[in-house]
């Protein structure tokens, strides 16, 4: 028999005993409690995980398990895998379809965006007219600020102005500095404390676990109501603290929590794990849709990156759910720009074929950065799991937050939120821009009638901004390594994009100055004449962001679609494709795993990677258990075995199920029975059926043979027998067997001979 590795059931005695509150499992570096099933209950609450047969003491009666299904039979233990073939067979006679409209996920994402923007600005000051306004909204309503100082308005006061009455001088700077650090520490402390106290599963990105769950694994409580509530609150706190993390990855987890809770309202999805995972695939698409304002990219992300089983009907359902969620988000208008996209760009000049060379260079940088980040982050997370560092999650978060805040405040590009930084880096400088990045020389001499500004020499402010960006690049690259994986909600999309956007902007400004001062070079001759708008640094930032995100996650198609939906830059799809493919090739050459696959392996989740190729030239007989030198395979005969013999077999072995054969001599396969179903059925029969004792015979046959009057009552268990288990012959090539496990989602496969 061949098992999908990693799925080991509990012993018979452990299934009989109540689960202790001290039963803890190490997952993602945190000590998590799987004993409580209140967060996400089993498929049938009549049979809890605490013990077999609780609450089932009824009047004794003869039971036929084929006609009267038992509570708990057909369900799965926590930290176990589902049987896709079995789950699909449950639903083959159902024809009623039901679509889920996850529209409230869009409203939830809008609330997270608005709250995070307000709390991020709260670290620097407060709006006197309405404290719930962030800096931008506060100044919108002010008629007293000038165009030159439109970011400064009388209604917005810094903490130094409120406390000491002035915003000028070193003491005011120190006061703002201290308040910034204090607010950051407060937000991060609240986030990690709530996660640790109420929902340990709310930490991290959630995408590695979502991928594992969608492949058929069960983690009770990971998609429950407590996780949803705590992750939503702590996500706002973590982002507002200024840590180098994003909210886009955790929003996928939040969306899947919403989808899972909705599944419990409908029997069709509550009692069928395979159908539930179709809904979760659609929910993952919704999460990306509301995170970036990219509904098509969200569907492709679910298809390419997280989903294990994605039938055609799930595709259009995901598209419809993402559409509804995006429409809801647009109606809330959390970005305040009347647009759905997060970073809207409007470049005024097309790209030239020669620019593919620097775009490819950005792809190489993204691949190298991605490989470096994955290795460094996994090394740090392994240290967290294997040393005393993991025993102090609150202290770790506070120390990293303090270091981040202290180093970030002096640099304006690290002090601002990461989303705001990316938006500024993507921006194409115009006449109305007051950013230091756009403070070129001789701007006043340019004709005001044109929107497109020609290439012009960089001023002292631009060079200062370049040095600040270079320092911000080093800071972001290092601090993100230790931030991702801490015990707070932490996404990786935005920090990775920020690293690439900074590198791209630096390269773009360099190319722009090169074209300005050397427009007569062969490289620029013919398409970059003096006074023309040749190079767009914001485009380089956008391409760099895609390259670095692709190097870390190894996404390709979905990433390109997300990027042009995210920015509205459809005509720049070729540079995005070139950089994304280059980053993937370079990163794959340095390491085959993306960040999510690496964390799946680090946490020991049983996940059969569908993208890997199986190159070993072996047969099924070389891999199956038992080996030739092992004891014979543990089997159950279809008749002739007593309850005591079956219970002994369950106690002495740890297999998740047993083949049922005609007899020990014949070994002809009849079916397959799961260990959990056997335990539950025997225990229920002892309590609810008269005359069932240890010497009672167990029958898996269709008809029970006549019994002697003095014989104890027999036990008929044909109802829990899988009569069509998947089998292969012993000479089947292993690459075919592995492909079968991947595409059918098998839990085990029986190997037959003759």
Describe the structure.
With 754 residues, this protein is mostly helical. 49% of the residues lie in helices and 6% in strands. A 3-stranded mixed beta sheet has the order 1-15-14. Strands 8-10-11 form a 3-stranded mixed beta sheet. The two termini are 15 Å apart.
What characteristic shape results from the CA principal axes?
elongated
Structural class: mainly alpha
Enumerate the strands of the largest sheet in spatial order, edge to edge or round the barrel.
1-15-14
Question: Which percent range describes the beta-strand content?
Answer: 5-15%
Quick one: how many beta strands?
15
Biggest sheet, open or closed, and with what strands and sense? 3 strands, mixed
In terms of per-residue confidence, which ranges show pLDDT below 50 for 5 or more consecutive residues?
A: 5-63, 93-101, 443-451
The quaternary structure here is single chain
Mean pLDDT: 81
Radius of gyration: 30 Å
Helix content: 40-55%
Total count of helical runs of at least 4 residues: 27
Terminal-residue CA separation: 15 Å
Family: Belongs to the chloride channel (TC 2.A.49) family.
Subcellular location: Endosome membrane; Membrane
Keywords: Antiport, ATP-binding, CBS domain, Chloride, Endosome, Ion transport, Membrane, Nucleotide-binding, Repeat, Transmembrane, Transmembrane helix, Transport
Domain CBS: 624-688
